[in-house]
């Protein structure tokens, strides 16, 4: 959501359009009902974007009764796609709803659009006062120094990957099967090819093994930045015993009433302020966290390689031999502490 919103700012500036504060899509599996203003400080955002683009909270009355013309750019490419393809619709209908292009090269935006996007992502978006206070309380409660681990092994994540796993508990198998729907797992040679391409999420046990290969001490304080329903977590906790979660550190009715977006915001806040950040996936949150940490000068950021783990285990490596090979696969990123998310970054507030 944060990524799409930042993209929306850049697009609005490209088109010289007014941006209407967005509404979050509901997510039934997150029990989600929170809106933009439940997570972000709207007034601060509008104030900080003054001079970059015009932002309004609501549509003018004469427009509010109309349905927006919907423009889906999710599969479009090209440097000037928005201007060539979207601007005519905006001029014709005056009010459009847009789905940003996933593959758009933001580094090719004109300077004025880059400036608006960077200001939105790194200068204007901040949590509401109450949510930031709760996030600061959570950060204070975590034993220091600590590593924030974004571990993705929820039933829907595994089901979406179409991967099969051996040795899972009956409860985990049932949860994955319930989440699969029409997405059946790959089998045979296709399954092996899919896994070797790095498409299968790391299990908590595999994550712990890679941690050991990287010589991360087993008494490291680890904050688990993860949603509800994480499976097989004992595979990590049985080796790394100082693992804490937000549900263990926070209490009270206000936390119990939080939904997916606000809980994710807590994880984001903790992760951008952690001593170290490690992710088992390369998703939207991981890209946003890595970029913000780079902006803050915190470069102890590493993405574990699913592909390296799959390729090495497919060769029959195990034990010390596998650990040595995993260390070599991660050595450059681990030594640099920069992961692989930063080459596309173009926002620079220090120049």
TrEMBL record:
- What are the transmembrane regions? none
Q: What metabolic or biological pathway is this protein involved in?
A: Glycan metabolism
Q: For this entry, list what GO says about its biological process.
A: fucose metabolic process
User: Molecular function (GO) terms listed?
Assistant: glycosyltransferase activity
The main location class comes to membrane
What keywords is this UniProt entry annotated with?
A: Carbohydrate metabolism, Fucose metabolism, Glycoprotein, Glycosyltransferase, Membrane, Signal-anchor, Transferase, Transmembrane, Transmembrane helix
Q: Which GO terms describe its cellular component?
A: cytoplasm; membrane
List where in the cell it is found. Membrane
How does this protein lie in the membrane?
Answer: Single-pass type II membrane protein
Record has Transmembrane helix as a keyword = yes
Q: Would you identify the family this protein belongs to, as annotated? A: Belongs to the glycosyltransferase GT106 family.
What protein name applies here? Answer: O-fucosyltransferase family protein
Species of origin reads Salix purpurea
Q: What is the lineage of its organism?
A: Eukaryota, Viridiplantae, Streptophyta, Embryophyta, Tracheophyta
């Amino acid at each position: 959501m944060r990524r799409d919103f930042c993209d929306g700012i850049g697009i609005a500036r490209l088109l010289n359009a007014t941006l209407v504060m967005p509404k979050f899509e509901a997510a039934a599996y997150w029990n989600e009902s929170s809106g933009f203003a439940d997570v972000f400080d709207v007034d601060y955002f509008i104030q900080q974007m003054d001079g970059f683009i015009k932002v309004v909270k609501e549509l003018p009355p004469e427009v509010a009764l109309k349905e927006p013309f919907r423009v889906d750019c999710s599969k479009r490419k090209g440097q000037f796609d928005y201007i060539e393809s979207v601007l005519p619709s905006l001029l014709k209908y005056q009010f459009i709803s847009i789905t940003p292009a996933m593959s758009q090269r933001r580094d090719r935006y004109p300077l004025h659009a880059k400036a608006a996007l960077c200001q939105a992502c790194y200068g204007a978006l901040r949590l509401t006062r109450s949510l930031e206070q709760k996030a600061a309380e959570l950060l204070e409660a975590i034993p220091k120094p600590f590593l924030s681990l974004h571990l993705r092994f929820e039933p829907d994540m595994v089901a979406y990957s179409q991967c099969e796993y051996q040795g899972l508990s009956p409860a985990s198998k049932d949860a994955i099967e319930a989440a699969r729907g029409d997405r059946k797992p790959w089998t045979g040679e296709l399954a092996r090819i899919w896994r070797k391409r790095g498409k299968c999420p790391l299990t908590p046990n595999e994550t712990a093994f890679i941690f050991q290969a990287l010589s991360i001490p087993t008494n490291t304080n680890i904050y688990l930045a993860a949603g509800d329903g994480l499976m097989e977590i004992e595979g990590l906790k049985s080796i790394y015993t100082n693992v804490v979660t937000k549900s263990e550190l926070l209490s009270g009715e206000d936390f119990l009433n939080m939904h997916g977006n606000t809980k994710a915001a807590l994880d984001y806040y903790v992760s951008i302020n952690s001593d170290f950040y490690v992710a088992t996936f390369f998703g939207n949150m991981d890209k946003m966290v890595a970029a913000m940490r780079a902006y803050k000068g915190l470069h102890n950021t590493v993405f574990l390689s699913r592909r390296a783990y799959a390729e090495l285990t497919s060769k029959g490596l195990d034990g010390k031999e596998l650990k040595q090979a995993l260390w070599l696969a991660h050595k450059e990123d681990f030594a640099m502490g920069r992961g692989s998310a930063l080459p596309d970054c173009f926002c620079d507030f220090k120049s």
